[in-house]
Amino acid sequence: MLVSTAEFKKGLRIVFDGEPYTIADFQHVKPGKGGAFIRTKLKHMRSGKVIDNTFRSGEKVELVDFEEKHMQYLYRDDRYHFMDTESYEQLSLSPEEVGDARDYLRENTEVDVLYIGDRPVTVELPNFVELAIAKTDPGVRGDTAQGGTKPARLETGASVQVPLFLNEGDVVKIDTRTGEYLGRVAAAGA
Length: 190
Known about the structure:
This protein is mainly beta and 190 residues long. It has 3 domains: 2-63, SH3 type barrels, CATH 2.30.30; 67-124, CATH 2.40.50.140; 128-186, CATH 2.40.50.140. Helix content is 2%, strand content 53%. The protein has 1 helix and 16 strands. The protein has one helix at residues 95-98; strands spanning 2-4, 13-16, 19-29, 37-44, 50-56, 60-63, 67-76, 80-84, 90-93, 110-116, 119-124, 128-136, 149-154, 159-163, 171-175, 180-186. The strands form 3 sheets. A 6-stranded antiparallel beta sheet has the order 1-6-2-3-4-5, with no helix packed on it. A 5-stranded antiparallel beta sheet has the order 9-8-7-10-11. A 5-stranded antiparallel beta sheet has the order 14-13-12-15-16, with no helix packed on it. A hairpin with a 2-residue loop joins strand 2 (13-16) and strand 3 (19-29). It is flat. The mean pLDDT is 87.
């Protein structure tokens, strides 16, 4: 199926140079002279590499033909293991195949695995996950006049900036698309 550049939106999966890409960002540009164009950042669905490309306004591109399977993350050894929630079949992916999603994967997390043909290409996380803080420096009262932040390592190994009042063991809500802290869900020991 073909779509026009007027239908571009973040997250749209298109075929560019014969490869599957996701539109990470786009901007319509109308210069004073000449035709309008769309400046995009495309993220390769397999390798995760991001490229910049410009499309002429009205240009048509093909959508990626993919299948989405709902799966549950089970565990990790040297590979990541998932189970299809409908057929109970198990799937094993390498760290490279899982990509950036591995920073937020905790056992029993429900994810969508995208297949192109019969090959899994990417793991799509829920937009928000709740993870415990594994390690962070203690915050000191009166450290700043405004709300400051400090680095924290989550239970999955990902690093995120959190407010000074958070401590180890606190459960926080993280946006998996940006890697930003959104709020505290539960205090340690609560």
